[in-house]
Amino acid sequence: MTLRFRFSSSDMITTAGVAMRPVEINDIGGTFERVGQPGIIEAFSHHQLAEMMRRPDTTYFAGYFDRATQEARRDKPVEVISELPEKTARLVIWRKAVCDAFLALEAAGLIKRTQRAYEQAKAQLASATARLVGEGASAFAKVRPGKEIKTRKLPASRTVLHWVRSYQAAGYSALSLIPATHLSGNRTRRWCPKAEALMNQVIEIYADTQRPSKVQSIQETRALFAEENARRTSAGATLLMVPSASSVKRRLDSADPFYVYAKRHGTSAAARKFAMSSNGPDVVRPMERVEMDENKLDVMSLLTLTGIWEHLPPDRQKKFETGRRWLYIAIDYATKCVVSMRLAETPNSDDAIRALRQIFEDKTPLAQAAECESTWHHHGGIGTLVTDMGPAFVSDAFQTTVASLGITSHLPPAGIPWMRGHIESFFRTLGHQLMPLLAGRTFFDTVDRGDYPSEMLACLCDDDLIKVLLTYIVDIYHNQPHGSLKGETPNAAWKRLIAEHGTPPVPDGLTLRKAFGRPLTRKLNDEGVLFSGLSYSCEALREAYLHSPIREVEIRVDLQDIGWIAVKVGATWYPALANQPGFAGVSFEELREGIRAVRHAHARAAKLDAPTVQRAIERISEANRRAFALRALTPYHTTDVEIARADAGLHHPLRSDAQRLGYVPPSNDLLNDAITITPPTDTSRESDSDDSGPGSERRTRRKTRRRWGFNDGK
């Protein structure tokens, strides 16, 4: 049952820093007006008021606006008696008992407010006071016979009458009886302004990067007084009073600790020293807060993608360069699941953007490529992305991408790693659990490393390293109990919270291509725009081809799905589908491998056919597809230079007249299915087709010319 509260118009309630006073209270609830903001009214039900009174940021002051209450609170060191020291609080309660006993005796006609009447009834007043306060012989605890009892002596009549008058004027509030000893003491300035300025110099002398001792700082400060007095002596002025060493030390001890430590050790060190522990952000929903960071792996590896290391002779193995890769990791704060991972040669914005792109994808194919038993399905939209102040994250490219996705970016100040505690903890967990299992580890520092030959034992290539990392994250880390989850595994936490809250929606395909797609410029022709042999078109491109004098358009390509691209016509982006069907979901790597396979079987001058390339893509082995997927996580991903080179090699679009007419003859032979279209025939050189001429002899010699092979070096 909800209580009904009764408020007075002189009461005040402060909640969430907003002070309000009651205006009207009825059976339903009450209306309150904000203090200092007349006309702003808020209404609360009795149930809401009950909930409000239990909140830690709510304070209730009964009769706050009464004149008597304000008189009692004026010049008082506390607002309630319980804030006083125990000795002072007991004294105030005794004074209150004296006043209450006096008023009770006065009401009974046993005492008057005169000195003579007070002296006559003093013993009776002391007895009544002892009963009210529970001290002396009237105490609740039993006193053994013969034990000494301490009682308070009543003051003279003038003091008691002063207490009673103050007590009544303050509305019978005990605050008016608090001793005014907190106002006592000489508060006049002891030093002249010049001496005060010189004494304050001890703080600046001590707060120096050279970190002098307190004794040195005090001596140097007193030396300043000696110099100033010497100058005043020569000028005939009044000398300054030189403070003692203890006075200067008290002035130094009163300095701001954070300011002194920051000046002596730096702001980052001061932030770490004076940081207060907390439970961190209140995050309960998956992907509500994603922490992302970069870290240099504590293991030496071979900076290559080769998979034939064990087959190379020792002299060739020594020529391979070794080093430490950087690892980009993104982790979901609520479930502690890793939602993105990527190797990088050095910290850079490009790899940071590619790692950000993985957060929105189901990465189970990557886990399968690494032969993991569990799935890596953790993905979704991002509420808030938290990174450090690293160059890769504060770069214009990364921040532009984050802003294009509509993500809230949070960059905690540098030197405060606990603001991203979970991602920092993950790197430490990685160093303790996984790195001891790898040959070539570098340990946490040179002292722990000792004489361990990390460079000589380096044997992991990039593809091996990424497989090890994927196996650890997907099969081990996601399935082991996590301390921050109270023993629950990240996979179980993800499943539970997804069922309860879901995740923010991932950006749509057009937004992803605008944010992450490779920016290119293409010329508009009658088929639309061309990229890597595929032509793309849409209604906006057709209108631009008819009416716009501008023949160059900007496109954005997603290398993981070349079935459609984003094109910019005017100031608007549009999706453009490939004119050749069957390429939806095909990656750029698969397209390039399919074209390479067709060209390997045909003459390079032959024109490529879309169905032929599609069948070649279907024949790509699963091992190659896994290699393509894992390679995307290493520093050897597809670069812009490779895209330009592959695109320049295709002078004609992939097409097939039979496919355009809706009929593709079935065949398993690439040579039969391919449509070989050669450049236009030059009639002036038809005589070269005669095999009996000298040109035929030259062609025969070229065909029979011996080609170089791997065994020629013997």
End-to-end distance? 97 Å
Low-confidence stretches: 658-714
CATH superfamily of the largest domain: Ribonuclease H-like superfamily/Ribonuclease H
Q: What overall form do the CA principal axes indicate? A: elongated
- What is the fold named in CATH at topology level of the largest domain? Nucleotidyltransferase, domain 5
Give the count of helical stretches.
29
Percent range for β-strand residues: 5-15%
Tally of individual domains: 5
Strand order across the largest sheet: 13-16-17-18-15-14
Region (Disordered): 664-714
Protein name: Transposase
GO biological process, one term: DNA integration
Domain Integrase catalytic: 282-498
Summarize the structure.
Residues 664-714 are annotated as: Disordered. The protein is an alpha+beta fold and 714 residues long.
Walk me through this protein's architecture.
With 714 residues, the chain is of the alpha+beta class. Helices cover 40% and strands 13% of the residues. α3 packs across α6 (157-169) and α16 packs antiparallel against α21. Mean pLDDT is 80; it is low at 658-714.
Outline the secondary-structure elements.
Elements: E1 12-15, E2 18-25, E3 29-34, E4 41-45, H1 46-53, E5 58-61, H2 67-73, H3 86-107, H4 115-120, H5 122-133, H6 157-169, H7 193-206, H8 214-235, H9 245-253, H10 257-265, H11 267-273, E6 289-296, E7 301-302, H12 314-317, E8 322-323, E9 326-332, E10 338-344, H13 349-358, H14 364-369, E11 384-386, H15 391-394, H16 396-404, E12 408-410, H17 421-433, H18 446-449, H19 462-476, H20 490-501, H21 509-516, E13 518-523, E14 529-531, E15 534-537, H22 539-547, E16 552-557, E17 564-569, E18 572-578, H23 588-601, H24 610-618, H25 622-631, H26 640-648, H27 657-660, H28 670-673, H29 694-704
Parallel strand pairs: 6-11, 11-12
Antiparallel strand pairs: 1-2, 1-5, 2-3, 3-4, 6-9, 7-8, 9-10, 13-16, 14-15, 15-18, 16-17, 17-18
Helix pairs in contact: 3-5, 3-6, 7-8, 7-9, 8-9, 10-11, 16-21, 23-24
